């Protein structure tokens, strides 16, 4: 284990050892017009790599783009095309921009080699090629490439984890905080309404107490799914607290938001939630409070909007629950 970051919680562990021991053979693409050399290289690499070869430069370029190779090798003595241009093309294509590139040069071809390195070639081999050196240089590049790919996908995953609530898959409160004020500003400057609804499950503590915490979690997931089914892609739905959710709806006035809220309320009340593997089945209700920018003061803020939606929610609770207040 090279890098762990348990303390942060959002960054997945990086296990380099398991990456290095992947069963899959590396995929190498060789652009070369000398079949005997290609065969020799294929033999030298056969234990850990699958080598594909191509002699025709234009065909080679399209194959390099489509082939998802771990490494591309270019014989810099190829005659049918300018091998330097070949290298720079490979560097410029989106699909091969980050693919390691290895140049094969003749002894004394220093100027061509320097030019190739300037164009972004990662490493080189001098002919006659030594097998140990070949394997060392190839494996270094392939490992580096896989490591970078791994970092990129873990980074993507941690970005998602950082803004997502794990239990429900909805956005978390942190994401809401970073987006709601922008939504609010946009509503302010465009003069379009923005509505916020706060939803709180009724007597949720009783569900936990009677059926257990796991059953409570299950209810939260069920509820989150009902929300997901009810919002548009432009809406921002998040888990705001334990059993409290918030939906921010751009271009939506209080009347339209009330219709959506009422639909969610009815939908939730009409469904039964199956708990504990079918042993229990319960009904759940939700109370909803709504606030909209159009009935606020000009100097209103996103925080004040949430506060007003919370006050409306309180009215819904004290008014008997299972209702919408706007
Ligand atoms: P009300 O109708 O007034 O909203 O009553 P309530 O019981 O729903 O409200 P209260 O705020 O008293 O209780 C919320 C409960 O939600 C308390 C807490 O233990 C529980 N809770 C918070 N987060 C989670 C969670 O992630 N999973 C589970 N199962 N329960 C949670
Ligand atoms: Mg409560
Ligand atoms: Mg509640
Ligand atoms: Mg609550």
Please explain how this structure is put together.
48% of the residues lie in helices and 20% in strands. It has 326 residues and is an alpha/beta fold. Strand 3, helix 4 and strand 4 form a beta-alpha-beta unit. Helix 9 packs across helix 10.
Task: Write a concise keyword list for the protein shown above.
alpha/beta, 12 strands, diguanylate cyclase activity, binds 3'-deoxy-guanosine-5'-triphosphate, binds magnesium ion, 5-stranded mixed beta sheet, 5-stranded parallel beta sheet, disordered N terminus, 326 residues
SSE layout:
Blueprint: H1 16-20, E1 26-31, H2 35-45, E2 49-54, H3 57-66, E3 71-75, H4 83-92, E4 101-106, H5 110-118, E5 123-127, H6 131-163, H7 173-190, E6 194-201, H8 204-211, H9 213-230, E7 236-239, E8 244-250, H10 254-270, E9 272-275, E10 280-283, E11 286-292, H11 302-318, E12 324-325
Parallel strand pairs: 1-2, 1-3, 3-4, 4-5, 11-12
Antiparallel strand pairs: 6-8, 6-11, 7-8, 9-10
The structure holds 3'-deoxy-guanosine-5'-triphosphate and magnesium ion (3 copies).
Number of helices, counting only DSSP H or I runs of 4 residues or more: 11
The coarse silhouette is elongated
Strand order of the largest sheet: 2-1-3-4-5
Bound molecules: 3'-deoxy-guanosine-5'-triphosphate, magnesium ion
Distance between the termini: 54 Å
Q: How large is the share of residues in beta strands?
A: 15-25%
Low-confidence stretches: 1-14
Query: What is the C-alpha radius of gyration, as a whole number of Å?
Result: 30 Å
How much helical structure, as a percent, in the residues?
Answer: 40-55%
Number of DSSP strand runs: 12
What's the overall average pLDDT, rounded? 91
Largest sheet: 5 strands, parallel
* Structural class based on helices, strands and sheet pairing: alpha/beta
Question: Helix and strand succession?
Answer: HEHEHEHEHEHHEHHEEHEEEHE
Protein name: diguanylate cyclase
Keywords: Phosphoprotein
GO cellular component, one term: plasma membrane
GO biological process, one term: negative regulation of bacterial-type flagellum-dependent cell motility
């Amino acid at each position: 284990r090279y890098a762990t970051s348990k303390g942060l919680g959002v960054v997945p562990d990086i296990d380099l050892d398991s990456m290095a021991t992947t069963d899959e053979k590396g995929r190498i693409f060789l652009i070369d017009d000398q079949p005997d050399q290609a065969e020799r290289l294929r033999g030298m690499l056969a234990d850990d790599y699958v080598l594909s070869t191509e002699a025709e430069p234009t065909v080679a370029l399209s194959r390099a783009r489509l082939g998802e190779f771990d490494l591309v090798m270019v014989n810099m003595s190829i005659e049918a095309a300018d091998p330097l241009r070949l290298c720079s093309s490979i560097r410029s294509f989106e699909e091969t921009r980050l693919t390691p590139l290895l140049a094969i040069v003749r002894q004394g071809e220093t100027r061509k080699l320097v030019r190739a390195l300037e164009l972004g070639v990662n490493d080189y081999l001098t002919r006659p090629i030594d097998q140990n050196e070949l394997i060392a240089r190839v494996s270094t590049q392939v490992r580096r490439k896989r490591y970078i790919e791994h970092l990129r996908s873990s980074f993507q995953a941690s970005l998602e984890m950082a803004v997502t609530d794990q239990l429900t898959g909805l956005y978390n409160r942190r994401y809401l905080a970073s987006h709601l004020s922008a939504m609010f500003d946009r509503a302010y400057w465009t003069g379009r309404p923005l509505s916020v609804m706060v939803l709180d499950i009724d007597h949720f503590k009783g569900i936990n107490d009677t059926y257990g915490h796991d059953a409570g979690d299950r209810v939260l997931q069920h509820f989150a799914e009902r929300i997901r089914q009810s919002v548009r892609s432009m809406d921002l739905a998040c888990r705001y607290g334990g059993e409290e959710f918030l939906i921010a709806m751009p271009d939506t006035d209080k009347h339209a938001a009330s219709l959506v809220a009422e639909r969610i309320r009815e939908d939730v009340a009409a469904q039964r939630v199956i708990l504990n593997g079918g042993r229990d089945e319960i009904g759940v209700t939700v109370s909803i409070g709504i606030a909209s920018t159009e009935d606020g003061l000009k100097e209103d803020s996103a925080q004040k909007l949430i506060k007003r939606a919370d006050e409306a929610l309180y009215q819904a609770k004290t008014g008997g629950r299972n209702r919408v207040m706007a």
